[in-house]
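How a chain folds remains the central question behind the approach discussed here. The record that follows shows the chain in one-letter code together with its fold in token form:
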Amino acid sequence: MRACEDAELPGLRIHDLRHTHAAILISAGRPLSAISRRLGHSSIRRDGSAVRAPP
């Protein structure tokens, strides 16, 4: 992705940004159900099993 290369982040993928976005929402205390809908998941189960507390 050109923008990532320009920012000197050549290993970054769009999918990585999706995970970062979800982690920021979790850290902000957004409900997991809202995050799941925002990510387009059909079930909260998919999100809940992968949630990890940010450092």
Observations:
- Helices lie at 2-6, 14-27, 32-39, 44-48.
